[in-house]
Please model this.
Amino acid sequence: MTHYTEFDAADYLDNDEAVAEFLAVAAEDPNPDVFLAAVAAVARARGMTKVAAAAGVGRVALHKALTPGAHPRYETVQKILRSLGLRMSFTVAH
Model:
């Protein structure tokens, strides 16, 4: 019998360039849950406890903020991204 492990993007987010590209692509999706799931994957890759502490939020609060269907405050998202060493940038849409 063949056993498969569940895919987790966090297993492949092992460098800053991969993380930045992953989040940029996720941010393009019109479904906001895709971006939250991507940020959650990055947080798992970096360590949820470590990210929560660096963002100044509790571990449970971090999980809740990044759960599909959540509506985290902009300042919470910014804190999380800063704790990951990231910042958002914008380009003109064509």
Summary: The mean pLDDT is 94. Residues 32-46 form the longest helix (15 residues).
